[in-house]
Amino acid sequence: MARLFVFGIGGTGSRVIKSLTMLLSAGIKPGKFDEVIPIIIDPHKDLQELNDCKRLIRLYSQINEQTYGENSKISEGFFRTKVTTLKSASTDKSLKDDIDFDEKSNESFGDFINKGRIKRISPTTLDLLSLLYSEKNFSQPLKVGFKGNPHMGSLVLNSLFGGRAFSTFKSVFGKEDRIFIISSVFGGTGAAGFPLLLKNFRQSDNPAIRDCQIGALSVLPYFKLKEAKETSDIDSNDFMTKTKSALTYYNNPDFTKQYNSLYYIADPDGQTEGYENNEEKQPNKAHLVELLGAISIIHFAENNNQREGDVKEYCLGGNVQGINFRNIGNTTRDLVKSKLTSLHLFSKIHTDIKENYKSISFCKANNFSANFFQNEFFTDEEYGLETFFNEFYNKWISELESNQRSFIPFNLKVNKSFNHLVIGNESDNNFWDGYFTRPIDKSDLLNRISKTTVNKEVRLLKDSFKNCQYLTMCWQGSTKFVQTNFNAQENGKL
Asked: CATH assignment of 3-106+144-314, given 3.40.50.1000, 3.30.1330.10, 3.40.50.1440, 3.40.50.1820?
C-alpha cells in the first residue's frame, strides 16, 4: 500500500494541510496513494491554528475509520482516503500519539545552544555567535517559534533528525511511498526547515527515502500584516526581501537536483487590508492560496515518473478579487468542482435528513432511524460528523469567501433552492434561467439519493457499518445530482 508523507512546516504548513484535509473529505483522491500521513513541524505549540489543524486531522481519521474500517473494496466516497499518524504507521506504540514531531521546548534559544557553557569554555566562540545572533535571539523562547529568523530555525530544527520521531519515520518508509514538503519562504520555520529536510532525505541511510520522489510547495508572500500596536518581531514589509534571499539559494543547481517537483505560489497584491499583527494568535483566515497549495499535493500524487528539478507555477484565469470556479482554470475546476459541490450539498442536506427521517423513503428502507442519527458517529462533540461540518467545514468555506483574495464557489445564503448555488456555473449566464428551467431544491436532491443503488459490497455490510451505507448513498446521490444539474465532470485529473 503506497503512502504519501506530507511534511507541513510552520504556520503555512498547517494551513495547507487543513485545506488538503477538506479536499480529501470531499472524496478527492491523491492519485494511487491509499494513505496520507501528515507530519507537522512547528515549535509554536500554543498556536490555535496548529491545534485546530491537529484536531481536524484526528476528526477526519475517526470518521474514516468508523465509515470504512478495513474495507478496501469501497474505493470512493466522502472521507475515503485514510489519514493516519506516524505512530499508527509504526509498531512502536509508545511513540507519542500526535501528528507532529515532539520538538517542544520551554528553553530559550540561548539555553538550547548552551550559551553559558560556551561562554565558560570558549569566549571567542561566543563572540562569533554574537555576530550571528542578537541578545533578543538568545533570550527568545523556542515555544513561540522563530519569528521570521531562519538562522535560528536552521540550528534548532537540525536537532530533529537524531530524534525518535524521525528515526521512526525512517524505519516505516517504503519503496512505494513518496514525500511532499510544505513551507513558506518568508518566515523563519519554513525557510529553515525545507532545505534541511531535503538534505537529510537525500542523505538518508534508508535507500527508499534517499531515492524516492519528493515534491514540495514553496509559498511566497500572499498576505500582509498591519503595523503592530506594540513592538513586533514580524514585519510584512520584510517578506519580499526574505523571499528574494531564499529564492537565490533555491536556484542553486546543488539544491534543484534534490527534489523532483517544486511548486511555487504567491499573491503579494491580492490583500488590500492586512491581518492583525498578533504573534501569539496569528488569527489568519483560510485563504485561496492555501487551497491551491493543497491542490498541488494532489497534482504531485497523480503524476508518476517526475523529472528532477521540475518547477511549476500557478496562474489564475483573471486578476479579480472574487474568484469562483470560472477563474481557477479548467483542469483545477474539473478536479475540484464536482467533489467539493457534493460535499457542500451533503453539509446542507444532512440536518434535513436527520430531522425528517420518518418521511424520507431511503431512511425507512435502510432503517436509518432516530437511534441511528443519535449515535456518536454523528453527535460526538470531538469526533462526530456534525462537528466536522459545524466547526470546521462551514467555517473554512466562509473564511475563503471573506478573505482577500476571496474564493467564492458557492452562494452561502442558499439553503433550499439550488439553481444558483454554484457560482461560476455555466448556467449562471443564461438570461432565461429561472423562466423556463424548473427550480431544483432539496427535494430533488433527496429524490436523487433515494434512487441510489449502492454497490454490492455496501449492501452486504453488517449493521455495524450502517455509517458506510448512509455516507455512500449520500455520496453517490449528491455526485449524480451535481453531474446532472451543474455540468460538472467526475474523476477530473490534473
From this structure: 3.40.50.1440
